[in-house]
Amino acid sequence: MRYIPNTSADRDEMLASIGVSSIEALFADIPESVRSCFRPLGLPPRSEMEVASIVSDMADRNKPTDAVCLLGGGIYDHYVPSVVGNLLSRSEFVTAYTPYQPEISQGTLTAMFEFQTYVCELTGMDIANASMYDGATAMAEAVLMAERIRKRGAVAVPRSLFSHLRRTLDTYCWATDIQIHEMNYLPDGTADWQSLPEQLSAVVVQTPNAFGVIEPLAGLKERIGDALLIVSCNPLSLGLLQPPGAYKADIVVAEGQSLGLAMGYGGPLLGLFAAREEHLRQMPGRIAGRTVDVDGKTGYAMAAQTREQHIRRQRATSNICTNSALCALATTIYLASAGSAGLRQVAKLNLEKAHYLADRITAIDGYELAFAGDFFNEFIVNVPGDATEIHDALVQAGFAVEAPQALQSFGLDRVLRFAVTEKRTKNELDRLTRVLGGSR
Amino acid sequence: MSTIFDCRCSEKVGGLFPELDVPAQGVERLIDAAHVRTQPLRLPDLSEPQVARHYTKLSKLNFGVDDGFYPLGSCTMKYNPKLNEAMAVLPGFSGLHPRSDVSRSQGALQLMFELTGFLRGIAGMADVSLQPVAGAHGELAGMFLFKKYFQVRGEHERKRILLPDTAHGTNPASAALAGFSVTEVASDETGRIDLAALDEALDDTVAGIMLTVPNTLGIFESDILQVTEKVHAAGGLCYFDGANLNSYMGKTRPGDMGADVFHFNLHKTMSTPHGGGGPGSGPIAVSDALVDYLPVPRVRLENEQYKLDWNCPHSIGSVHSFYGNFLVAVRAFAYILQLGDVGLREVSENAVLNANYLQQRLKKTYALPYDGLCKHEFVLSGKGLAEGISTLDIAKRLIDYGVHPPTIYFPLTVKEAIMIEPTETESKATLDRFAEIMEIVAREAKENPQLLHDAPVRASVRRLDQTQAAKNPVLKVPLDGE
């Protein structure tokens, strides 16, 4: 086997040195009754070339690039600069593990420290961890953290959360006996906080929300008493939008995919997690800190480890160990490449192009924006007639658009959701408009 | 080490993204001024060569499996085949949106469906979910399944999870996160679960037990069938932590030992890279009793079409945004496909052979508290090697000899533990060289202990002051004005 360097002569020598006669003897401690149940998969070994061919054929069956992608709902078709993939493939990053030995992990640790700085700067928060699995588990862990701090057993969340965030949050809250109060949305698509219950551990808000609408956050923190304010955001939008920290958010979470990650059929993703400094001891996840070595030279090490499972065991703030480190590195390199100017530019491209498409579509008779609230790069339109038929026509014409059924859980009928990134061209958007019957 | 924020900003950047090709309306016309950022972002604007140099420099301060021997116990730091990486970046996979219509994702669904089948077969269990994205995440999903099982049965008093004292730290943390309390069960003088202690702990408040097989001492629980039978007889369920699957894959199966939930670590056993701490993948296999509760969506094959099934009324729901770490699953699929049954077996045979060979040699120099046949790893103790020498000193000195230190101070049942997992992808020559280095370090410990106290001296930094880091945490780069 190609990945095993020992020869049969090596093996014989090693067995002799151990003092056993066969490899089988090394497994004598496994009960015979267990071993005799074993059944193989019936899978022959294959050459690398054969495997490459089989797996490539499967990839080809997907053909995502055949369609112009207008899918969104939390994952977006953004451009990933070449430098990201190239640097990310260095085996020193790829084949290392958690930096348990900081002296030979300064690369990973320095990058974690930079990542935390970027996340804090983007979100306007004091502290950030080195990543969570994805935006959904980041939100769930934020709610658990708020519950540890406030212990009220209940949180409020808007109905307009992305469905995948809500599904995951529901599971974590069911398991931890946290009650979820759902807040409906107003006609303009923003959350309705009118009948907010009292005695909450946290109020969760997502901006832009599942309708693409930017939530007004000014004054919300004051309104919710001493419940913690958890804001879930799109980090790419923060190139333009006011960061949640400016609205006194206590915890900010986000899906980091928009900053340099492939869509990858939804994984791996990247959870961003930031908080106010006073909550450091309740934060989940790895955190890198700056320190000095015995000679006074600057270095980095994992910090605040007494929160973590390998020290605190059942009293840890989370069970998380392996997280999404390489994805965090991708985002770090993306932000280093883009800089303030690039991030602002890409955010503006998203904003302008999405509004261009929205303007073109709503110029067609019978099409109108479902919500009047401001949006960033995603919006929902009411369509005339059967949304499924219109959807199918778009798909036929080579556009990837989400089926309208996906939005039924929000109580929305006869609607389509469009996300427009910097990758979409005027030609593509005009062509889409023409399929819908527009003049462009 | 300087950070990217110390790099001198270039005069003008840009060129990553094109100019706007639709008529510009201006931010102020499109969104309310109240939503617009008031403080400018302070991200450095850099040229690409600066970025490339910086991260290349950082990479060289790291130590990965491709750099040298990495016997980090319990982490299975085996070689990561390059084929896997090539497969994961195929545009048909990497460019696929998770909300794509299933008619456009048939290849991805097929891969998930077939990988699910492979893992089901390797575990010898009823069904598998690929959704959890790390070992600890699989544990948590498994604990959620336990909770659901007892909730459906109306056995609300089952709130305790039993854990051997050798368990990984994630086990108690996962159980606690799912709302269970933890009862520790002592191990006996051979390092295995003490059956009498187990009997003592079992009653009708027990939801189940979390086992690691072989355990974290690298010792197979020879009484495994008695253990699982006892737990089942008491009405509990058995969780198997699959961190150590590399020791028996292709030879025996957790399903045949009485497991109700078993998690895989694809980033350990199935050769997908660790990435400096993820992304991993932690699929869970379950017994018949728990199939209906698995996370949604499930991948099904109906009329020769693959589909995502969301309609599973008894499911615990979802534990991740979409379908787990799909691109990690691609790598694991390529690996299993290449190995086949013979390869899977050779992996565990060689992993166990390498570990026993190394144990046999190193026990002449270092204390081996639990002597006997090991599986894929073993645990030495640094205690008593030399006056005033700790396991930390030994580990740091290994760095000077160009090897990654083993896992240290775990499991907690061994004082000054040194947990060594060589994996099957290391040659006898590498093991011999490592043993020599360990012997040299042992000699140094006795003859010139200062060498160990001062170590490492050949890394980019020497020992770091973690106390100061804990007392006055500096957790980000101070930017202008801070």
Write the layout of secondary structure elements.
The complex is a heterodimer of chains A (440) and B (482).
Chain A: H1 8-18, H2 32-35, H3 48-60, E1 68-69, H4 82-88, H5 91-94, H6 106-123, E2 127-128, H7 135-150, E3 154-158, H8 163-175, E4 179-183, E5 202-207, H9 220-223, E6 228-233, E7 251-255, E8 271-275, E9 288-292, E10 298-302, H10 309-312, H11 325-362, E11 368-369, E12 378-382, H12 387-396, E13 399-400, E14 415-419, H13 426-435
Parallel strand pairs in A: 1-13, 3-4, 3-5, 5-6, 6-7
Antiparallel strand pairs in A: 2-8, 7-8, 9-10, 11-12, 12-14
Chain B: H1 27-30, H2 48-59, H3 82-88, H4 91-94, H5 106-123, E1 127-129, H6 135-153, E2 160-164, H7 170-177, E3 181-185, H8 195-201, E4 206-212, H9 224-233, E5 237-241, E6 261-263, E7 284-286, E8 298-302, E9 305-309, H10 326-362, E10 378-381, H11 391-400, E11 407-408, E12 417-420, H12 428-447, H13 450-454, H14 466-471
Parallel strand pairs in B: 2-3, 2-4, 4-5, 5-6
Antiparallel strand pairs in B: 1-7, 6-7, 8-9, 10-12, 11-12
Helix pairs in contact in B: 3-10, 5-10, 6-7, 10-12
As a whole number of angstroms, the C-alpha radius of gyration of chain A is: 25 Å
Q: Could you describe the largest sheet of chain B, including whether it forms a barrel?
A: 7 strands, mixed
CATH superfamily of the largest domain in chain B: Type I PLP-dependent aspartate aminotransferase-like (Major domain)
> Span from first to last CA of chain A?
59 Å
Q: Please identify which CATH superfamily of the largest domain in chain A we are dealing with.
A: Type I PLP-dependent aspartate aminotransferase-like (Major domain)
- Residue runs with pLDDT of under 50 for 5 or more positions of chain A: none
What percent of residues of chain B are in strands? Answer: 5-15%
Contiguous runs where pLDDT drops below 50 for at least 5 residues of chain B: none
Widest sheet, order of strands of chain A:
2-8-7-6-5-3-4
By CATH, the architecture of the largest domain in chain A is named 3-Layer(aba) Sandwich
- What is the count of helical runs of chain A? 13
Measured as a percent range, the helix fraction of chain A is 25-40%
Dominant shape of chain A: globular
